[in-house]
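cron nightly-structures :: item 1 of 1
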Amino acid sequence: MRVAQYVACPSTNDAVSRFVFLLDRAFHSEGLSSQVFADVIEPSMIGRVRSFADDLDPSDLLIYHASTATPLADHILDRPGRLVVYYHNVTPSKYFEPFWPDFARLMTVARLQIASLADRADRGLAASVFSAADLTAWGYSRVDVVPLAVDPDLYRAGAAPARARSSGPIRILVIGRMCPHKAIHDSVRLAATATRADVEVEIDIVGSPHTPAYVWAVKRYRSVLGCSNVTFHGSLVQADLNDLFERGDVLLSLSRHEGFGVPLLEAMAHGLPVVALDAGGVAETCGNAAVLLESTDVRVALSAIESITSDEALCHTQTMRGYERWQAAIGAPRVRDCVEACLS
């Protein structure tokens, strides 16, 4: 049996791609022949992935990592082999419609493609109960929740962290593509709110400039509000992102839609307390290791940030819980669960 994993456009810094390659290594360690196939192959992926596979056998295992629209979905529909669809979630089109209608339609196509595989798939997997609900609604007969495993070699996590905030502004780290559903504009609004309240903050925003009109709007918003305490870093290599983790005081997520939220775990690995809007699968990922917000009011978020960064005991409790959460995500049992779910 050969394992053929399909992912639309793998890249070095993408959480889905990292998960795919982690599984690839695990399959090889099991003595299985494993290969990753892609629709779009970036230069950094040459030699690691191949284009569409046409030499499949009925005994092969096909794993389709569903997260966007791609010809791969149509390609595997009538290919031989057992099919497992691992659903990483697709952002609803409503978030993109005001900024990028063509991309909004692409998200609609992505959901239709995944739904079309329901009868073909032997099993549907999802990283969260939140995401699994989509598969069930689309008619998948067998759906299981198997949270993502994370590669520990990418981070500087060591012994259980003990954070102590230095004097000066509260350094807030925000990680997410510059997309409407990530609500990066709310982080800018929080910076302005903090200034009016005489709370010193510095906000570092990390993420690729995905949606052009939204990127322009957010940067214009920062300019209008005069938020010189907000820095856009764009996409960073892991070493530079790790530096920001180590300099930061808290991770903030105000995203409106998250299928899982790997940056939440990354922050926990580096000892940052997490303040996050309870949206999508965030609560499942964080458990009791984050301050979860029920309101999108940035004043509520700012108050939570002030509380957790000024209360040493609370901060210590949250970072220790976070580190335990991180350890569960990187442990061999998590990877084993993923492999067994695909093979069973």
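cron nightly-structures :: done
The chain has a mean pLDDT of 92.
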